[in-house]
């Protein structure tokens, strides 16, 4: 080193030391939140009977340099795969082994449908078929396995290896600090508005022009016609002009150019997507794909790979809450945020005509009632942990007084279904491969 280089390196050395000290705490806290959000995910039954599954795309795998077959290994197939001679290589319902996984790559399959915990229909916990192989034993996951806790450890443990850096992108000050590493993982899991937010198209249309205007560029999208594209879209009623404008800071790259057709929910500029906006415009499946791709990319670039199944468990929990629109004949309240499976359970009781206690009066037995209607929510992991049906679990996580006061006001009862609640009251946890479900 000459004198200047030596002097500059002292800054790097100090920054490295402070980063490490801060990072350990941040990664530890992320792990704690992941444990809390996923702790009650336990394998409860053999098969929930789901046929919806999840389509895995080759393009998503290529972005992180993993073959599609590798991703399919140890999962239950919902598609069939035949070779050139017409012989079935993978049957629907097969647990895909290494040889079958290799065949998926060999035949150059672009997409394949498998069972996933994100689509599992089990009312409590998840089922064996939707999870597939236990990666510790390379065999079908056993009943009673505490999959949620393993998930939190699998994602949290490599968290200490992720960088804490935020890279400043050149150009105009404040163009965007692209967040990477651990803070970005946190941003995604907590569904926060990202720094350097990308522009998403709100309508189907055609890019009419991209014009520079001072310190920004303006994209104009004509919503009126999609120039002979399928299903010509007209602008919304009440719009004076059918042209939508988006302003973008100079220095931010574009993914579209003049004359391109764009669909609702498509990313127009570089940057990170706002998950709530994406959810409203493109639906839950687009958000699921984006979260998994985003988090996996961060870990892979830091040399720590996580099996996708674990990320799916967390994403399942992020989509596990619903807001009641019309409670029907159930005991739920309009506007209440509840666990999806609780609503399923209530609706099942009502549709079977089971005995309902209608707030003080007994429901008639055998009479079929009206099920509740609800809207799907997307919540960050902290919010999910605090809206759990178990007040003991919520109180032991954060905002203790608030959780307990609310529970007292609502005269809540805790069914002790998760692991935390049972630890708190000193019972055996309802998990473990010898546990009688």
Describe this structure in words.
It is built from 15 helices and 19 strands. Strand 17 (357-358) and strand 18 (361-362) form a beta hairpin. A 4-stranded antiparallel sheet has the order 13-12-11-14, with no helix packed on it. The termini are far apart. The chain is 35% helix and 16% strand. With 437 residues, the protein is α+β, with helices and mostly antiparallel strands. Among the domains are: 62-114, no CATH class; 319-425, no CATH class.
Quick synopsis:
With 437 residues, this protein is of the alpha+beta class. It has 15 helices and 19 strands.
Rounded mean pLDDT is 85
Overall structural class, as computed from helix and strand content, comes to: alpha+beta
Q: What share of the residues does DSSP label as strand, in percent?
A: 15-25%
Spatial separation of the terminal alpha carbons = 66 Å
* Rg on CA atoms, Å: 25 Å
Enumerate how many helices there are, as a single number. Answer: 15
Low-confidence stretches: 168-176, 226-240, 355-364
Which word captures the global form?
globular
Number of strands: 19
Order of strands, main sheet, comes to: 13-12-11-14
Helix content: 25-40%
Q: Largest sheet at a glance?
A: 4 strands, antiparallel
Highlighted features:
437 residues; alpha+beta; four-stranded antiparallel β-sheet; three-stranded antiparallel β-sheet; globular
Question: Helices, strands, pairings?
Answer:
Elements (H helix, E strand, L loop, with lengths): L2 H36 L4 E3 L8 E4 H5 L5 H5 L8 E2 L5 E3 L7 H9 L4 E4 L11 E2 H4 L1 E2 L4 E2 L6 H10 L9 E3 L8 E3 L1 H9 L15 E9 L2 E7 L20 E7 L11 E2 L12 H8 L1 H18 L6 H11 L2 E6 L10 E3 H12 L5 E2 L2 E2 L10 E4 L4 H6 L4 H5 L4 H10 L9 H7 L12
Parallel strand pairs: 1-6
Antiparallel strand pairs: 2-5, 3-4, 7-8, 9-10, 11-12, 11-14, 12-13, 15-16, 15-19, 17-18
Helix pairs in contact: 1-6, 6-10, 7-9, 8-9, 9-10
């Amino acid at each position: 080193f000459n004198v200047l280089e030596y002097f500059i390196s002292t800054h790097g050395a100090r920054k490295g030391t402070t980063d490490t000290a801060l990072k350990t705490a941040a990664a530890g806290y992320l792990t704690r939140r992941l444990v809390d959000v996923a702790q009650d995910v336990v394998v409860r039954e053999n098969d929930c009977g789901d046929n919806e599954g999840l389509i895995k795309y080759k393009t998503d795998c290529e972005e992180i340099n993993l073959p599609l077959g590798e991703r399919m290994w140890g999962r239950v197939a919902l598609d069939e795969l035949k070779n050139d001679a017409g012989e079935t290589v993978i049957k629907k319902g097969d647990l895909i082994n290494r040889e079958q996984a290799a065949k998926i790559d060999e035949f150059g399959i672009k997409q394949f449908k498998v069972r996933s915990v994100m689509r599992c229909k089990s009312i409590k916990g998840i089922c064996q078929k939707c999870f597939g192989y236990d990666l510790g034993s390379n065999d079908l996951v056993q009943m009673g396995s505490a999959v949620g806790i393993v998930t939190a450890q699998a994602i949290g443990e490599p968290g200490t290896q992720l960088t804490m850096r935020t890279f400043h992108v050149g150009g105009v000050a404040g163009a965007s600090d692209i967040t990477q590493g651990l803070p970005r993982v946190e941003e995604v899991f907590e569904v926060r508005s990202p720094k350097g937010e990308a522009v998403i198209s709100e309508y189907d249309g055609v890019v009419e022009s991209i014009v520079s205007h001072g310190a920004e560029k303006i994209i104009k999208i004509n919503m009126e016609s999609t120039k002979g594209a399928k299903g010509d879209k007209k602008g919304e009623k009440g719009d004076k002009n059918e042209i939508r404008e988006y302003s973008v800071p100079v220095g931010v790259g574009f993914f579209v150019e003049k004359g391109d057709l764009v669909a609702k929910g498509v990313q127009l500029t570089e940057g990170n997507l706002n998950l709530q906006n994406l959810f409203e415009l493109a639906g839950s499946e687009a958000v699921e794909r984006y979260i998994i791709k985003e988090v996996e990319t961060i870990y892979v670039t830091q040399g720590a790979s996580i099996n996708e199944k674990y990320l799916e468990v967390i994403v399942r929990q992020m989509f596990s809450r619903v807001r009641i629109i019309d409670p029907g004949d159930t005991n739920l309240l309009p506007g209440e945020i509840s666990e999806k499976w609780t609503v399923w359970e209530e609706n099942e009781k009502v549709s079977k005509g089971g005995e309902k206690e209608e707030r003080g009066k007994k429901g008639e037995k055998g009479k079929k009632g009206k099920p509740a209607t609800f809207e799907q929510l997307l919540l960050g992991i902290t919010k999910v942990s605090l809206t759990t049906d178990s007040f003991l679990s919520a109180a032991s996580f954060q905002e203790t007084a608030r959780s307990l006061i609310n529970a007292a006001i609502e005269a809540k009862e805790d069914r002790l279904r998760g692991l935390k609640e049972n630890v708190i009251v000193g019972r055996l946890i309802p998990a473990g491969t010898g546990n009688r479900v």
